[in-house]
Each structure stands twice: as structure tokens, then as C-alpha cells.
From TrEMBL:
<dbReference type="GO" id="GO:0005886">
    <property type="term" value="C:plasma membrane"/>
</dbReference>
<feature type="transmembrane region" description="Helical">
    <location>
        <begin position="267"/>
        <end position="288"/>
    </location>
</feature>
<keyword id="KW-0812">Transmembrane</keyword>
<feature type="transmembrane region" description="Helical">
    <location>
        <begin position="135"/>
        <end position="154"/>
    </location>
</feature>
<feature type="transmembrane region" description="Helical">
    <location>
        <begin position="363"/>
        <end position="381"/>
    </location>
</feature>
<protein>
    <submittedName>
        <fullName>ABC transporter permease</fullName>
    </submittedName>
</protein>
<feature type="transmembrane region" description="Helical">
    <location>
        <begin position="218"/>
        <end position="237"/>
    </location>
</feature>
<keyword id="KW-0472">Membrane</keyword>
<feature type="transmembrane region" description="Helical">
    <location>
        <begin position="22"/>
        <end position="44"/>
    </location>
</feature>
<feature type="transmembrane region" description="Helical">
    <location>
        <begin position="338"/>
        <end position="356"/>
    </location>
</feature>
<keyword id="KW-1003">Cell membrane</keyword>
<dbReference type="GO" id="GO:0022857">
    <property type="term" value="F:transmembrane transporter activity"/>
</dbReference>
<feature type="transmembrane region" description="Helical">
    <location>
        <begin position="81"/>
        <end position="100"/>
    </location>
</feature>
<feature type="transmembrane region" description="Helical">
    <location>
        <begin position="300"/>
        <end position="326"/>
    </location>
</feature>
<dbReference type="InterPro" id="IPR001851">
    <property type="entry name" value="ABC_transp_permease"/>
</dbReference>
<keyword id="KW-1133">Transmembrane helix</keyword>
<feature type="transmembrane region" description="Helical">
    <location>
        <begin position="56"/>
        <end position="75"/>
    </location>
</feature>
Amino acid sequence: MQGALSSANKPGGTKGDDRRKLSYPMVLLIIAGALLFLSTLRVITGVDNLTSFGQYSAALGWAVPIGLAGLGGLWAERAGVINIGLEGMMMLGTFAAGWIGWQYGPWAAVGAGIIGGALGGLLHAIATVTFGVDHIVSGVAINILALGVVQFLAKIWFGSPGSPASEAGGNDKQSPPIDDMPTFTVPVLADWLADIQKQEWFLISDTAGILRAGVDNVSWVTLLAVVLFVGTFFMLWRSPFGLRLRSCGENPLAAESLGVNVYKYKYAAVVVSGALAGLGGAFLAVYVHHYQENQTGGRGYIGLATMIFGNWRPGGVGVGAGLFGFMEASQLRGGGPTIHALLLVGAVLLAGYAVWKLRSGARMTATVALAAALLIAIWYAASDTVPMELVEASPYVTTLLVLSLAAQRLRAPKAIGKAYRRGQGT
């Protein structure tokens, strides 16, 4: 049966995906080149944040909720269900975490956030899988419904005069404070990397500063997120369960003919999707020690963008989340100089993209990319910083640019968004 499902999935392009996979030596070479580039850029621009521990520690923290939302989208869409409702499921997760967390602590907040998001996923599954509602319509409805529900419940539970939550510091816009989430540090390694970073050696100290962010004062939820990314890869690409789930997103009729309960797998995928988005929302609440109104700030949509940028693969989602987390950390840390330095990065990448397109014969695209690279380079040379408005919009601008450049290599599951009814192929 497993072999038959593999054959059923081949027309969707999994064989082509394997041909496009990078080898481990090539991945290591790319990482080494990126580190060398960042170190060189730091020396040229004098912006230490490009490789500092503080920048990457903050970037890791902000990447986690985006990455979990993207991972949630991956689960749903690999099973053929579009999940635009990730933002709403994150809202439910943040509210549930705030409600439970101030009373029972951060770990209870995490569990409540997972349940809140899973309930949102279950609602989306009922609408799309059972009743055949358009996936986009259902997702948008969940986002609107979740916003209204959390605002209404916040006024009742947190903002009601004389209530325990109100007396503990809550109001209709936020929950009472949540205790700190425990963190872990690898003592000897963290201290050693900190000492190397202080030496200010080219490349070596820069690498130490970046690596230290992964071993010094890291939230346990961040470690849980890493485990979930690795577990998702093995669950969906190295197990019979994952093969059956992905077949529901590629060719559900073929999967049905081989005995797969497509409804069950779609339900499981969408509920897990909501639970992961809810966990991302809970991380936000625990990270800032409160549930706050509009706390998700569009991160569910950015998570959806990371899933698309990552070509519906966990590794790609992780890379995209890291990129957007870096941009968000730069924005929140007042990163005008950092964003200004990244203009030079953008110019170099666009120039490289232009060369690549020129070699493949796309002269018009290459000309436009080269002209954009030249304009950005002139902008960088003629200024010392960038307007704060652009700094604040940088995560969203990055989302648009990355999706525009990545659009040509994407391959979504073949049956994504399509209505399925048992027996319709017979």
C-alpha cells in the first residue's frame, strides 16, 4: 500500500523535489558563505548588530511564533486544506494563554494556548472538510470571529471591575501578568562563546555571537519549537502516516481508492495546524508576560508567507521564520542602522539575481533587477540611516519581496483548496 501511495504521489512532483534538494556539504558551504558575508558587511558598515548576540537572541524569540504558525499552515496545506485562519487561531492561543497563565503559570499557559488554537482548527475543519465551505472564506471568518471573541471575553474576564483578574492588574486590553518562562543555558559553552565574541576577531567572534543566541538564556518553548520542526519532518516525510496525509493533499481520490480515510487525515492535519498556531500565540503571551489586544500583529499571515517561501517544507519554513524574526527584532530594537546596512545586502542579492536571470535568458527580468540593485546601492551610499516608517514596515516589505522572488520555484500540493467528497471518483 505504501508503495502504491508513493506512485500516486509522483505526478505531484515529489521526485522533482528530491532532485532540487541541496546536499549537506552544499548547505554547510552556503552557511559558511553567509557568515563570511555578514562579517564582511559588519566591518564595512560598522553595524555590530549584524552579528551581535542580542540581535540574534531577539530574532530567535520573534522567529518562534512566526515559525510555528508557518509549520501549522504546512500541516493543513499538505493535507489539501488552505488555512488562512492561522491569525485567528494564534489570537485564540494568546487569549487562552493569558487567561490560564496568570493563574497557573507559564507552562499551563502553553497548554491552554495549544488547546485554544486546536479548537480554532477544529472549527475550520468542520467548515471545510465536513460542510465543504470555501477554505478562504472559512479562514477569513475564523479570523474575524476570533478577534471578536477574544475582545469580548477580555472585557468580561479581565476588565470587569472587582473581578480577581482586574484586581491582579488586568483590564479590557490585557491580562494580568504571567510569570517568567524558565530558560536554559549551556554554561561552559555559553561562557566560552561570550569570551570569543569579546575578542572582536573577524568571522570567529561574529560566528560566536550568532551561535551564543542558541545556547544562552533560551526559552524552553523555543527548544520545543525546534523539536516540533524536526518531528514534523520525520512524521510527514519518513512515516506511513505522513505519506498518507500528504497523499490527501496531492490526490485524495487515489488515496481513497487505496483505503485511506481522507476525512480523518484532513481533520487531524487541520487540528494540529491550529494547535501549532495556538502554541505560537501562547509563546507571544508568555514572551511579553501578558495577553494583549492585537498581540499577534499579523504574524499568522507572515507565518503563512514563510510556509509559501519555504515551499511547504519544514526546513524552508524555519529559514523563512528566521529571516522575518531578524527583521522584526531589528524593527523593535530601533534598528535604523541595521536596516540601512541591509540595503547593501539587498543590492548584492538583486545583482546576483540579475546575473542568474541573464544566464537563463530572462533579459527583461535581469534588467529590472539590476536597475533596482543600482538604485538601492545609490540610496545606501547617499544616506546614513533609513526613515523610522520604513524600519517599522520592514517585516512586511520583506514578506512581499521574498514571495515575489521565490514565486517561480514554488510547487503547492496539487489538490490544495479543492473540495473533496468520499466516493466522488467512483
